[in-house]
Design a protein that fits this description.
Layout: H1 3-12, E1 20-24, H2 28-31, H3 40-44, E2 53-56, H4 58-64, E3 73-76, E4 78-79, E5 92-93, H5 97-102, E6 107-112, H6 119-135, E7 140-144, H7 154-166, E8 171-174, H8 180-185, E9 191-194, H9 201-213, E10 218-221, H10 223-226, H11 231-244, H12 248-262
Parallel strand pairs: 1-2, 1-10, 2-3, 3-6, 6-7, 7-8, 8-9, 9-10
Antiparallel strand pairs: 4-5
The structure holds ribose-5-phosphate (R5P).
Ribose-5-phosphate (R5P) binds near residues 111, 196 and 221.
Length: about 280
């Protein structure tokens, strides 16, 4: 592998543990001002010391993040539909590789929707991005998006993840499902899990733990961190699971003790009110 490519991957997947805590805050590209990210810069700043990479859009990067920060950037390169559109996830390229290079990113991310009628569009656009990214030594993250009506099991996730890798991904992001080991073992590149919708903190730590135990290289987690009652405590607990093999009880104990030390937010975050009209939605 090219030195630049390897160097960029090593900035994200830490060589000491072979794992990564990716902080996903790219939700605005189809969800707008997601709960917890209304003031993205303010929400993310205290989390940055604990994030191995920050995954976001070019707009969020330019408008909300100080260029002086020392965190590798994973740039979302796909989009084109909103949560209001029934063809959500029929994504194409929404950012040029030149702009990604200008932004000095360490990785580029693109969603494919395997099994949907427009899967071909997303796959061809993804592979075009991979070719462009490779020419600059930038690794590609394939997000295996899942429509609402699609079966979410290890067989499907393994199929989509393996396809992502064989089509050129250097890292695959998918969803945790029962039998996750099958997904990891049949994918030749590191696999990370998305967090999905907000669930209780202990359950999110359990999911991260189960994924790591099954061989995942880490998490690319968003809402279960930034919508936690105390996001700074939560990301540290997630780190303990990912990088230190902490058990769920220990990680949750760490979360609770940090939360009481740092102080819980005055008011727990409410769930987003907007109900999407789309029939096919991300598994998010
Ligand atoms: C999904 O494709 C987006 O990239 C989100 O960033 C991703 O789903 C991770 O966020 P969450 O943990 O909130 O699902």
């Amino acid at each position: 592998m090219d030195w630049g490519m390897q160097n960029r991957i090593s900035r994200i997947i830490k060589p000491a543990s072979g794992r990564t805590v990716m902080l996903a805050v790219d939700h605005g590209y189809f969800m707008g001002p997601t709960t917890g990210l209304e003031k993205l810069g303010r929400a993310v700043k205290p989390l940055l010391p604990y994030a191995d990479t920050l995954m976001l859009t070019r707009g969020a990067l330019r408008y909300y993040i100080d260029p002086g920060v020392d965190v590798p950037i994973t740039l979302r390169m796909s989009g084109g539909t909103s949560i209001l559109n029934k063809q959500l996830l029929h994504e194409g390229s929404v950012c040029s590789m030149e702009d990604a290079v200008r932004l000095n990113v360490s990785c580029v991310a693109f969603s494919i929707l395997v099994g949907a009628e427009y899967e071909r569009d997303t796959i061809l656009a993804f592979t075009k991005m991979v070719d462009e990214a490779r020419s600059y030594g930038i690794p590609s993250l394939c997000v295996t998006a899942v429509g609402r009506d699609m079966v979410r099991d290890a067989r499907y996730m393994a199929l989509a993840s393996r396809m992502g890798a064989e089509l050129g991904a250097d890292i695959v992001k998918t969803y945790y499902v029962e039998g996750f080991r099958k997904v990891v073992e049949s994918c030749p590149v590191p696999v990370v899990i998305a967090g999905g919708k907000k669930i209780p903190e202990r359950d999110a730590l359990q999911m991260a733990h189960d994924a790591i135990s099954a061989g995942a290289a880490g998490v690319d987690m968003g809402r279960n961190i930034f919508q936690a009652e105390n996001p700074v405590a939560m990301i540290q607990a997630v780190r303990a699971v990912v990088h230190e093999n902490a058990g769920v009880d220990d990680a949750y104990g760490l979360y609770r003790s940090l939360k009481s030390k740092l102080g819980a937010k005055a008011k727990p975050r409410a769930k987003a009110k907007a109900k999407p009209r789309a029939k096919v939605r991300a598994g998010r």
